[in-house]
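Lecture 7 notes: from sequence to structure.

We start with a single chain of 184 residues. Read the sequence below before looking at the structure.
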Amino acid sequence: MNGTMDETLPLLERAAGRTADLVDSIGEDELALPTPCAELDVRGLIAHLEWGASLFESLATGGQMIPQGEYTGDFRERAERMLAAWRRPEAWEGTSPGMGLPMATLAGMSLCDLVVHGWDLSVAIGRPYEVGGEEAERLLAFAGQMAPMGRERGAFGEPVEVPAGAPALERALGELGRDPSWKP
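Now the structure, written as tokens:
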């Protein structure tokens, strides 16, 4: 999923906007609902997304890993700051001092985080989350490249078997340890 700025940035922008719209639609009464992330309810998953946006902003500007915090309700603002960091051409150059991975790989990780956790939220609250074909194909390629290392580091679960003819998003979710047919 190591794409160039021109290939990946538009996908990041669409995923961040779609996920922020979804987060903004969530009511107080939905924050305790379960999600496909067994250890996280909706509030916890939004807190994870908030942290992810701040983390990838830090990494895109040459910073380090940052600790995850509590839910603050400012995902859209954090996502905008993250996108501003990725809009800088120098953010795509070299290797991250904070993670030791190519910057383009980190952009792919950011896209994966937004799309997968956006899907997690959508099925938890029962609202649509339309992922474009190009995003789904990029996510599937990313899953094939990064899932084994992600599993070793505890970021992804064991693969879930998904039919070979399933849509790219479902196959990517399965590779990343999600059951595409999960229901609350």
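The domain at 5-134 is CATH 1.20.120.450 (Four Helix Bundle (Hemerythrin (Met), subunit A)). Keep this in mind for problem set 3.
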